[in-house]
Amino acid sequence: MPAATGPVAGMYVCGITPYDATHLGHAATAVAFDLLHRAWLDEGLEVRFVSNVTDVDDPLLERAAALGVDWATLAAEQSALYADDMTALAVLPPQVYLGAVEAIPLVADAVTRLLDRGLAYRVPLEPGAGGAHPELGDVYADAHAPEVELVPGLDHDATVALFAERGGDPARPGKRDPLDPALWRRERPGEPAWDAGVLGSGRPGWHIECTVIAEQALGDAFDVQGGGRDLCFPHHAMSTAHAKALGGQGARVQLHAGMVALAGEKMSKSLGNLVLVSTLRTEGVDPMAVRLAILAHHYSQDWEWNDEVLATATERLTTWRAAVSGNGGPDATATLAEVRAALAEDLEAPRALAAVDSWASTSLTLGGDVEGAPGVVARAVDALLGIRL
Ligand code: 5CA
Ligand code: ZN
Predict the structure, then answer these.
(1) Residues of 43-68 as b/e, b for ≥16 C-beta within 10 angstroms?
(2) Ligand 1 mean position, distance from CA 227 (Å)
(3) Looking at the DSSP assignment, which residues form a beta bridge with residue 10?
(4) What is the 3-state secondary structure of 24-55?
(5) Taking the CA of residue 73 as centre, how many other CA atoms within 13 Å lie in the half-sphere pointing to its CB?
(6) In the chain, what's the furthest Cα-to-Cα distance?
(7) Cβ atoms 259, 271 nearer than 8 A
């Protein structure tokens, strides 16, 4: 597990774009970083956990238009649902939680600084764009900055294709390089826009949003930036490049959770192949079983959600609850040490679950006479794994 560099561990985890909340992929990524949060707390560190919500961006606006609803209402509803789901899944809340809209003054300031330093440039608008100031272009970052690493194993064309697949606009006329990402998108008819001084009215680009929120809350260098593996490129590569262009360092370590799939395909809002946490909750599934289903997989692994994964987790939860229900039980000292060791070893949750399984099985078959041992296990499972028995 990544070591923190000081007594205060700083972690930034990329949050949702709230047009459909919360599928099992979002939940798994949130739980992965919650495990790190809990392991750091158990080490005695103070943790400063920061997250965002991308509450204005193209996919949100497109979904709102398709549904015929107000984009801000959709974002607020889905953000609230996400918060409820996180509470149900016992994900410790961030100390700082900021939306893209709230971060607009920070973004505007950062983009202006990048323009002043010659690390960003304006791209002329198409006719009809730009409101009262059509002469002020969109602003793009110069991705030729040496900090931008292309994806290992991908050639230039494949990288450009990946950039396009993940929200980039390589074919936009007037850019210096197809991979340059937008920092500030000027006002367009029918799109929300905010005034931003010399930049002209518009809205933030995606990567700079996370750069500035992290910098504001965690300073110019911090321990971990996290998210799902789909964010490696371009999002985390670009947001770190922006941080460096602004004179900081960004995250010392980038950590990515594996992708959760359904029937062989990555679960994603754009494909619509979603299992929502809220649906499971409505169906009466215990959120602790959902969390246990997630923890049965190492965070870095890709895995597939299915009924069997949930059934196994539900059975495990029932077994654990039965095992901790008595006053006495088998000694839990070694179990607790093994759970801690497993988590210290790159957050090996499946190994931690196996240790608790083993204690529970002994407890239920042989019993034990150590007074208070079940309570020790229950509290350890709660504190370290976020499972309330
Ligand atoms: N708002 C941006 C990040 S700044 C965003 O990517 N939003 S999201 O709603 O698409 O994803 C929210 C988080 O869930 C991200 O960390 C993303 O990497 C993660 N995620 C999305 N789909 C999956 C999946 N199928 N499996 C695991 N994690 C996923
Ligand atoms: Zn992000």
Answers:
(1) eebebbbbbbbbbbbbebbebbeeee
(2) 7
(3) 48
(4) HHHHHHHHHHHHHHHHHHHCCCEEEEEEEECC
(5) 6
(6) 80
(7) no
In this structure, the strands spanning 202-204 and 250-257 are unpaired
Residue ranges of the chain whose pLDDT lies below 50 = 146-147
Residue written as token pair 């000081």 = 6
Pairing of strands 328-329, 370-371: antiparallel
Q: What does the pLDDT read at residue 4?
A: 78
pLDDT for the residue 288: 98
Q: How far apart are alpha carbons 183 and 175 in whole angstroms?
A: 12
**Centre of ligand 1 from the C-alpha of residue 33, in Å:** 13
Res 144: pLDDT: 64
Burial 78-94 (b: 16+ CB within 10 A, else e): bbebbbebbebbbbbeb
For 156-203, write each residue's pLDDT tens digit: 888 899 999 999 999 999 999 999 999 999 999 999 999 999 999 999
> Which residue's alpha carbon is nearest to atom 22 within ligand 1?
25
pLDDT on residue 165:
94
Sequence-ordered list of residues with C-beta below 8 angstroms from that of 202, at least 6 positions apart, any chain:
138, 184, 185, 186, 187, 193, 194, 196
Which ligand ends up closest to the CA of 57? 1
Q: Is the CB of 226 inside a 6 Å radius of any atom of ligand 1?
A: no
Distance between CA atoms of residues 214 and 226, nearest Å:
11
